[in-house]
Amino acid sequence: MIVADSFKSRRVAVFGLARTGVSAAKSLLAGGAEVAAWDDKPAARDKAAAEGVPLVDLRAADWTTFAALVLAPGVPLTHPVPHDVVTLAKAAGVPVIGDMELFARSSQRLPGTRVVMITGTNGKSTTTALIAHLLEAAGVPVAVGGNLGTAVLDLDPVPAGGVYVFEVSSYQIDLLDRLTPDVGILLNITPDHLDRHGGMDGYIAVKERLFRDQSAAQVAVVGLDDAASAGIADRLRAKARRVTGLAVGRVLGQGVSAKDGTLFENGEAVYDLTTLDRLRGAHNWQNAAAAFAALRGLGLPRAAALAGLASFPGLAHRMELVAVRGGIRFVNDSKATNADAAAKALAAYDHIYWIAGGKPKAGGITSLGEFWPKISRAYLIGEAAQDFAATLDGHVRHAIVGTLEAAVATAARDAAADGAAAPVVLLSPACASFDQFSDFEARGERFRSLVQALGEAAA
C-alpha cells in the first residue's frame, strides 16, 4: 500500500466505495486521517464497513469540517449534473480530488521515481500493460495500475529509479491537480463518454488537461491520426512542449510510427512488428509504437526499449492467443462486445473460423461486410444467432450452433481440415455476454478451458 499521509490529523470525505474508493479510504486511515465515507448503494456500504471503512452519511455531514472530498471516478463531477455530494463540497469550498492526487501528495512517492500516464479512447489497457512489460524486461522497477487492474494506492512503492505506469480515464484526469506525468500518452480520441463531459469539446479538453502542467523536460506522446489529437499536439508544440508524434499507416520523419507492420523512429525502421503474434493488427501497432515512445521518452536506449516486445504475453480476452494446436491459432477476443471491437480482430487475421453472437448490440454486424472474404465459416451462438445468420446469408458460410461448447468443437474440426497455412479459430463475439455468461471475462475463460480440453483430447 502507498500511504496517503498528506491529510494526517485532518478530516476527509470519501464518496463512492467500489475498488478505488475503498482503497483511498484505507490509505487515508493508514496515513492518520479521519475518514468519513459513503456510497449510495447499501451493498457497497456494507462491504466497505466489513473492511473497516468508517461510514458517515455525507448528505447530513458538516462540510465545514472536511479538508477534501475524495471522489470515485465513476461519480459525476460536472455532467450531466454534479452528484449532490459534489455540490455540497463545492458550496463549502472543499476541494474535490481523486485517489491519484492522494498518490501525488504522498511522502511514499520517493524522489527519483517517475510516472507514465496513458489515456485515449481506445487501446489504453494494452499500451499500459505493454509499457510495464517492456520496463520490466529492461530491468526497471515498475508498478502498474490505475484504470487498469490495481488501484494506485494499493500498489507497493517503487524505489528510486523506478517507474509508475498508470492507465487513466477521462474521469480520472478530471480529478487530477498536482500529478503531472513525466511521459504522458494520448493514443486517440473518438466520441465517448460525451454525457460526462458536456459534449465533444469537453471530452477533448479533459484529455488535453493531462499535459497541462508538464515541464519542458517532460514528454507528451500524442497520436496524430485523428484531428482532435493532432490539434492537441499542435497546441502543445506552440507552447514549446516536448512532443513525440505517433502515427500508423505512414512514416513520420520526426516521431514514432508504424507502417505495413514495421516500426519506425524518426523515419528509421527499427522493428518488424509482424513477428509479434500477440500484437497483431494496426491498432496494436499503434500500441507498440506508443510503448516504445514511452521508454525512449524515459531515456532508455533503443535496444533496451525494444527488447521485451517479443515476450509480451498480451492481455486476457483482447486478441489473446490462447493456444496453437496443429497449426491452428485459437484467439480469445471475448472483450469485443460490439461490431467495432470485433472489426479489429477480423482485420488482423485471414482464414478465420469466427465464433460470434451473444446478447446483441444495436446495429448488429452489418458494418463488418468488408471482412466477409476473410471468414471461412461463422459459428453463431446466443440470442443474436438468428439475426447474424440473416446478415451473413449469401456472403459467409455459417451455422447456428447455439453454445460456445458446440462452436469451439465444430470450428476446431473445420479449421483442422483447412488447407491454409495458418487458420484461426477466433472468438470475437460482437455481442455482450449476458445471455449465457456473467460477463465477457467468464465467456473468455470458458473459451480458454474448451481449447485446453481439445489438447487433452488429442493427447
Task: Summarize the structure in words.
This protein is α/β, with parallel strands linked by helices. 33% of the residues lie in helices and 20% in strands. It is built from 15 helices and 19 strands. A 9-stranded mixed beta sheet has the order 6-7-5-8-9-10-11-12-13, sandwiched between helices. A 6-stranded mixed beta sheet has the order 14-15-19-16-17-18, sandwiched between helices. Helix 5 crosses helix 10 and helix 14 crosses helix 15. It is globular and about 70 Å long. The two termini are 45 Å apart. The model has no long low-confidence stretch (mean pLDDT 95).
Write the layout of secondary structure elements.
Blueprint: E1 11-15, H1 19-30, E2 34-38, H2 42-50, E3 68-71, H3 84-91, E4 96-97, H4 99-105, E5 114-119, H5 124-137, E6 142-146, E7 163-167, H6 170-173, E8 183-186, H7 194-197, H8 200-208, E9 219-223, H9 227-238, E10 242-248, E11 256-259, E12 262-265, E13 268-272, H10 282-297, H11 302-306, E14 320-325, E15 328-332, H12 339-348, E16 352-357, E17 375-381, H13 385-392, E18 398-402, H14 404-416, E19 424-427, H15 440-458
Parallel strand pairs: 1-2, 1-3, 3-4, 5-7, 5-8, 6-7, 8-9, 9-10, 10-11, 15-19, 16-17, 16-19, 17-18
Antiparallel strand pairs: 11-12, 12-13, 14-15
Helix pairs in contact: 5-10, 14-15
